[in-house]
Write a structure and sequence with these properties.
single chain, 157 residues, mainly alpha
Length: 157
């Protein structure tokens, strides 16, 4: 990523926010055992902090989505589910939310609920994620959701 040519802190926050975001997503999509949960949490929180300073509402909510996933993958179920519920409420209230974002949100919420041991939410969010995933129109968007969905534990039968 090319650094800003000026000394405006907002420009630098965007660079650092995007860089931390990209690092966190790379770690979040890694196979179990192939990433350091502390590094994932650090990167996700760094991204969220930078986007809080310079991002718009959508940037901040995408950062919250990443925090929900990072906390779930790190086994921090209670905080993961709190972030996931916040993102869920935000996205479902907006009819313009893209199909892939809805599917991703449900998948992360299912993961968070599993990490928190909330079986009924895990099962319902997982079913919602599968339905929403099937409705994602573009193959590129389906690939994004699939990279997260493959890590989400299936609810018990």
């Amino acid at each position: 990523m090319k650094p800003p040519a000026d000394s405006d802190p907002a420009h630098w926050h965007r660079v650092f926010g995007a860089s931390a975001n990209n690092a966190a997503w790379t770690l979040a999509e890694a196979p179990a055992g192939a990433f350091d949960p502390a590094a994932l949490l650090d990167a996700a929180h760094a991204a969220a902090w930078h986007w809080t300073l310079v991002g718009n509402e959508q940037n901040r909510m995408r950062a919250r989505t990443l925090l929900a996933l990072a906390h779930a993958r790190a086994g921090l179920g209670t905080s993961a589910l709190a972030y996931a519920d916040e993102v869920h409420d935000y996205l479902v209230a907006r009819p313009e939310t893209p199909d892939w974002a809805i599917a991703l949100m449900h998948a992360i919420r299912a993961y968070a609920a599993a990490a928190a041991g909330v079986g009924d939410t895990h099962a319902s969010a997982y079913a919602d994620a599968k339905r929403a995933f099937d409705a994602v129109a573009r193959d590129e968007d389906r690939e994004v959701v699939e990279r997260v969905l493959r890590h989400v534990p299936m609810p018990p039968a």
